[in-house]
Amino acid sequence: MTALLTVSGCQSGSHPHSHSNSLTYSHTHTHNEADTEQKPQWLAGDHHIHSHYSVGWDKSVNPPRPILAGDAHYSTPKNASMAARHGLDWMVTTDHGGPNHSKVNLEMAYPELKASRQAVPQVLQFYGMELDTPGARHSSLIIPHSDEEAHQLFHIEKHYNRREVLHEITRDKESLMLEALADMQTHTHKPVVLANHPGRTAIDLGHYTKVTPRELRDWHDTAPDIAIGMEGAPGHQANAINPDGSIDPTGIRGGYDNFPTMGGFDQMTARLGGFWDSMLGEGRRWFITATSDSHVHYTDGRTDFWPGEYSKTYVYAKKTYESVLENLRNGRVFITTGDLIDALFVTVHNQRTGDSADIAEKITATPGDELLLTVRFRDPDGVNFNQENPQVNRVDVIVGDITGPLADRTEDLNPTTRVLQRFYASDWQRSDDGFVTLTMPLRQLSASSYVRIRGTTNTNELEPQIDPPGENPWHDLWFYSNPVFIQF
After folding, report:
1. Inter-axis angle of helices 174-185 and 213-222, to 10 degrees?
2. How far is the C-alpha of 358 from the C-alpha of 456, rounded, in Å?
3. CB-side neighbour CA atoms (13 Å) of 101
4. DSSP letter (8 states) at residue 105
């Protein structure tokens, strides 16, 4: 199958952090009536960022006393300014909890967030936390921007955070998480919950411990428009970089000490036909993201990149709080590492009906319909934050059948998933504005399916392989789209 090249006539963009793309983009960042009229655009963000209110605890007193910067080191305005420097349009502050930490958030972290919004207005700054998840490990809890946001988070953290009480084992129950999700489902302003580093506690490929396929299915069944997905690419990706920039040969990407990441991605996402594909094969709207999990930058002696420095979650939205959160909730997302790309459009067109569907949308077809897939991405001609200009060397078109709910809720495989086509750099040309357009017919599909896109610099691995200790994360870059759904 041959790639058909279409030369794009879009506005030029020469730097991965300029955000100049084929869509209207405003650099004013004001939040007024003009915002409601702007067109959607790809907005880069990070929903897993820690401030110095991810505290340590002095356990010599009862109750334990919070120690500012005991875990993460930076203030919220510092994180926001670094997010802006590294090309982010939106971010979420997600501090860990602990005994009575709900009071720390309400009385200390939230006022600093409000001040940070004033200090760095060009970045939309959501309120949230890294929920110490009952019966699991951690999840990003994103609170919608409203006058009620402070007390909404206080309520959730106070009643449901596992570590809010002194003896957290009393709350470490899956049933309490389901109760929390059912509660959130009743809120006027519905939060978003994403499982953080879901496979980090797995002890082997497909051998899960604290976070399991059945558990995530239970979350999604309980609150499908709140528990909407998981980190595909976890944070702590600078674990193998020493403060002077040299490589630590023992450093493990993501802190995945038991079973490694694969191309920097969690096995629940990276494994072809694995857990993510099993969820999509059920017809679930289960989406992936990428984050920094920033606590302390590697130059300051820890394992992290700044927000946006290495991983980005792009949401197709207007630059308003409401639009970003709703389009994140609805999966209008692609993710990338190392600024490999900064725009990605995936469209399935039914040539009989004239209908089209983009990322996270659904299109209806009947057997015999001619479906055309168009993949359009921009590989920017500019250096990333490692002062390199990585090139996309391969794009994979991945499809899987949608067969409905599985009888075995512990299942983490979809055997129908396959790579339908691999395109290599020799198959395309890049136009002056950095865009490449690939098209191909989807003739093989005759049953309900999904199609998702993956791309990489790495042509040595047809599938992402286990990341060895000491791997330089800048030299193994990937991007992933969320799926387009096709219903027959």
Report:
1. 30
2. 21
3. 32
4. I
**Over the stretch 452-471, which tens digit does the pLDDT of each residue have?**
999 999 999 999 999 999 99
The structure's pTM equals 0.93
CATH superfamily of 39-487: Metal-dependent hydrolases (3.20.20.140)
76-85 helix and 110-119 helix, angle to the nearest 10 degrees: 40
d(Cα 83, Cα 87) in Å, to the nearest integer?
A: 6
Report the DSSP pairing between strands 356-357 and 343-350. Answer: antiparallel
pLDDT tens-place string over residues 189-245: 999 999 999 999 999 999 999 999 999 999 999 999 999 999 999 999 999 999 999
Q: Coil, strand, or helix at residue 213? A: helix
The structure tokens listed for 12 are 């030029």
How far is it, in rounded angstroms, from Cα 189 to Cα 171? 25
User: Distance of CA 421 to CAs 343, 350, 442, 464, Å?
Assistant: 21, 19, 10, 16
- In 176-324, DSSP assigns E strands to 192-195, 227-233, 287-290, 311-317
Amino acid, single-letter form, for residue 343: A
For 151, the enclosing helix (H) or strand (E) is: helix 149-160
Spatial distance between the Cα atoms of 142 and 137, rounded to a whole number of angstroms: 16
Q: What is the residue whose two structure tokens read 């009071």?
A: 103
Extents of the domains making up the chain: 39-487
